Amino acid sequence: MPRLKSPDLRTVSRLLRHRRVLLPVCTVVGLLLAGVGWIAVTAVLARSELLAAQRSLETLRGQGAAAPTWGSAPHLRTVEAAVQRAAGHAARAHRLTTGPAWYPAAHVPLLGGPLRTARGIAEASDRLTHEVLPPLTRTAAHLGATTGGDSGHLDLAALGRAAPLLTRAARNASEVRTEVDELPSGTWLPAADTARARLAEQLGSISTVTDDAAMAARVVPPMLGADGPRRYLVVFENAAEARGTGGLPGAFAVLTSEGGRLRFEDFGNDTELSDIRAAVDLPDEYARLYGPNAPTSTWVNSNLSPHFPYAARIWAAAWRAHADQRLDGALSLDPGALSGLLAKSGSASLADGTVVSAANVVALTQRTSYAAYESIPERKAFFLDVARAVADRLMGAMDDPARRLALFTALREQMKDGRIKVWSAHPDEQREVRKRPFGGALPDAPAPLVGLVVTNAAGTKLDYYLDRNLVWEPGRCTAEGREVTVTVRLSNRAPASGLPTYVTQRVDRPPYPTRPGDNRLLVSYFASEQAQLIKATLDGRPAQLHPATERGHPVYTLDLEHPAGSTRTLVLRLREPRSDLAPTVLRQPLVRPLRATVRPYGPCEG
Question: What totals of helices (H) and strands (E) does the chain contain, helices first?
Fold first, then answer.
């Protein structure tokens, strides 16, 4: 037999060296493959958990504001259970996307972006369902609760105790929103980018709601009389005749609150306050802009400025001169706000059987009543009857725990839209209130301002038929700033015939012929701070606008004759300071909402 040749020592050594090299390489490759597999499996599981969490929260919408038990104890238990289920799913998704495989993979250049986004989404969902939503649901329970079984008596003490938790929740919501905004976008995985964008949008809404809830927990208890009785003047505005804050101030009532119990009293109409002089100290620029129309001694002109705190201070001073009572604040609302509230409280009925509902209150008070009542005293009495009936209906809904939370939600929506405005005579409360849309304050933030304000200058009730359309379009950047073009289209939709004389008659007595339905407006544009008007045209022809300033904002005003059936087009070319911030649109609440378009723009470079 042939003798087997012994392996060469050098060959053996070489094989051993190769093995020593291959073994670590194979180990690393194996670990990488295992890591990739682990990430793939856990990503699928995490996605499933996040979808389950989303479904749990979406069931809250199904509990709906239309349900008669919305805000009741069973409903709130259902909400809390849904939040707890969502929290469990989100916590599992967060655990699945943490650990030794996910962290390094998420930081791999170029390839790790979607994994980092997925980790961030899971963590944000976990924090959202554990740190933000639970305090909100508990606060909802407090709003739906009563004190000591006394119907209509809000648990202000419990709401006040929730303030620190809600303030922390608002801070957490803001932090989570910032963290999600900083996650990678535009990665190679569109699904991750879409999920991030959707969550960022939802967090924007949740952050706003939580911040509002925290503010309410701090301010509502003292404003509703937790520390002693409070008294407020509530003014009902008639948007058929436009004023700066919305509509002409008409009927009013005094709202009192003590320990959370609300009560309306002292209903009256504008004639009772028509000749009262309000002793109030206002800036010189206010006197220059509005002084010729005597806003402090003419009740129907008391809210010419769109800055609601000015009107509220005038109202408070007028009431003190009229009734020798000091007010703790003032509120305004219009029939559009009443419509939103009646949709949750249910309809009200007048003594003659007239039903006042969410569907008809706007037309009833601002259009059809002028045809139904030719006598001014009869019509003003009708407005007071409507105000009393609606107030009684709202107080009745407050007495019903099943409707109370739905009513509070509707109240928040109307305040967010600026149809209900609030001013407090207490400086610490007013500092909180004025930052919100319902504070009605002209903004002092650095963001650009888009502010169209119209005021009826004819004494008609034709603004019920006014359509407003505005387009704000940024142009090129120059060394001096950014060029902006503002196009305003105002359409008078008043019918050519059939309107009562009281609606169409003009008290301005123009020196030129007019027809029934023709109107006259003061059209003011409130621009960004330090903006300059370059050029203005009306219907394509050069126009001269009166310049002024209010609270740091340039104001350009045009006296506009507005024939029935016509559309007038005002174009302003402005130069504004450079800003990358989104513009703030001032939305004057009239019968027909402002249709505003803000064109997108990028940052100025150089």
Answer: 17, 20
